[in-house]
Amino acid sequence: MSNLSNSAEAHESIRKITHDPVTRLLLANSQLTITQLETLLADSIATGEEIKKTRKRFYRPIGARITRGSYNRTLVQAQNNIIRSIYTVLLLGYLGLFDTTSLQPFIELADTIATYATESKISENDHTSTKHLEDKLREFISALANRHSFKDIL
What we know:
Layout: H1 3-19, H2 21-28, H3 34-45, H4 68-94, H5 103-120, H6 127-149
């Protein structure tokens, strides 16, 4: 398979993921930007030994060419945002403000979202199903967050 074919396939794969309504909903409430997500996806797609690190930047589905430095800065920003999010959860658990045993329902929720999205095959233009999922997510996350996950220790 040529590099052009690999790039085209990577672009299409990343485009499908980033245009998925569930991905958009979760991304809008995450610590990542769309550019950072695309960069993380490009980096994860290009994991093979045969792919040079310098070629990964071409997997991002953007109109203009991206410099190696810009790609690397965006990748580091995305990774740092993820690391900071993990440290935030650990900090809240350490201080007793967040019961770390309450993380299991969030992990189960992620699995449920993936199953729901796969089974219902929500399309980009299916605003009713997306709105329904968004409402259910907000309701469930609010219930989890209010369900003694955050402790009043003061």
